[in-house]
Design brief:
The protein contains 2 helices and 10 strands. The longest helix has 26 residues. Strands 5-6-7-8 form a 4-stranded antiparallel β-sheet, with no helix packed on it. The protein is of the alpha+beta class. 20% of the residues lie in helices and 31% in strands. It binds FE2/S2 (inorganic) cluster. The site of FE2/S2 (inorganic) cluster has 11 residues, from loops.
């Protein structure tokens, strides 16, 4: 306890101590303004077009190029056959299908419904997801039956010196 409290009347205490209230109020107001400015800032950031950025990414307008990855030799993939590979990461399952002498298509083969692996069924000429009977058009990756609504992400491939390389992923291109 300070000795000031032992004096009567207190040095700085009197019945007009309420006068300090103005200052307190000013502080309050300043604090309030700070909060208001902070809230406005949060609102401004939250209203930035993140949705548009995400949509652009999802619509495939932002194509991604990765280090080229050799999938297989042309001579090892007969027309009509498919081979599975990983791209762009070691955990990203993908499938390459040779449709004709010089036509190849490749997709990330996690089903766009619930990510079951999608298979190439040569006899039916379709890509099939066994989990819920989803089907995809092999030429475009677009869903043709079952619950999937989005196309399989396409992987662009290049043929160089008798080998087939994965080059980039086209995300959800419609
Ligand atoms: S996970 Fe492929 S159809 Fe459901």
């Amino acid at each position: 306890m300070s000795d000031k409290n032992n004096k009567i009347p207190f040095n700085e205490d009197n019945y007009t101590h309420n006068i300090e209230r103005n200052n307190e109020r000013k502080l309050d107001r300043r604090g309030f303004m700070k909060t208001l400015v902070g809230a406005a800032g949060v609102f401004a950031v939250s209203s930035l077009p993140w949705g548009a950025v995400a949509a652009k990414e999802l619509m495939g307008l932002g194509e991604k190029e990765y280090p080229h990855k050799k999938i297989t030799e042309v001579s090892k993939l007969p027309i009509g056959d498919a081979v599975e590979f990983k791209f762009p990461g070691d955990h990203d399952d993908a499938i390459l299908i040779r449709l004709s002498e010089n036509k190849y298509v490749a997709y990330q083969n996690a089903c766009t419904h619930l990510r079951c692996p999608v298979f190439w069924v040569k006899e039916q000429g379709e890509m099939i997801c066994p989990c819920h009977h989803g089907k995809f058009n092999v030429e475009t990756g677009a869903p043709t039956a079952g619950p999937p609504r989005r196309p399989l992400p396409e992987i662009q491939v290049n043929v160089e010196n008798g080998a087939i390389y994965a080059v980039r992923v086209k995300r959800y291109e419609a």
